[in-house]
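Hello,

Our lab assistant flagged a job as stuck in the queue for most of the afternoon. It eventually completed. Since we weren't sure the result was trustworthy after the delay, we are filing this so someone can double-check. Below is the sequence as submitted and the structure that was eventually returned. Let us know if re-running is recommended.
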Amino acid sequence: MKYLNALQAIDTLKALQLLGITAYPNGTYAKFSCLECWEDYANIKLFGEKKNVYYCNKCKGAGNILTLTLKVKMLLDYNEAIEFLGRTMTSQKPITEELNLNYELEWNEKLDKAGYTKEICNKFGIGFPKGKTMLSGCIVYTVYNEQGTKIAYYGYRLKDYKPVFLKSFNPELYLYNYHNIDMTKPVYVTNAVKHWLMIFRDVNQNVVALFDLPYLSGRQLKLLREIPEITFFGYEEEINPLIAQADKFLENYILIFKKK
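-- returned structure --
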């Protein structure tokens, strides 16, 4: 397994537990006693960009879950460390209970200019939240699990299009719009929710999107395996990392690149 793919595939909390390291999750990070200085906590990224990379503010020690494994299990080499951690997959359970939070999302001219009709926004729960919330200034998408239960809100800040979401939401566990797709027809897959609309307008509802992760988690691969025919669609530099995984773990998929 390639180095980057190995980092992305490893379940952080499960790996730390396997190493005998006590971790304290907090949002997108978890903290643990730094093995370099033992005087402060190091923070390790749980998912997203730089997943499984850690850093200590006290001693400036840094590394990732693989280098950490080599420190704890000193007799292992790199390949043995990957094999040791290979038993770990995403262990957090998907949310099944409906979100106890209700944003009132409104449609406006900004959405209209971006191609989001009022009908689409009302149907899929897309819009700008009214009032002051952590997603103020964001285009917000309502997220549902495979059963159609509302579990989260996912937003993009207009000023830089960076994703914003609640700490209880793990983007590795879901595919946007999965609950709406027709399994008897080809399903399009794109890497970001913000790209979802440009495909949706052409193929109606049979589009699912990743939540801006540069990889497919074990659970996302499991969901995609249930689809008979998949088409990956997106910009080449963003889609290529996904295709590397698809080549190994998926069948019956095709690829379409979109030019910028």
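-- support follow-up --
The delay was a queue issue, not a problem with the job. The result is valid. The mean pLDDT is 85. The chain has nine helices and 14 strands.
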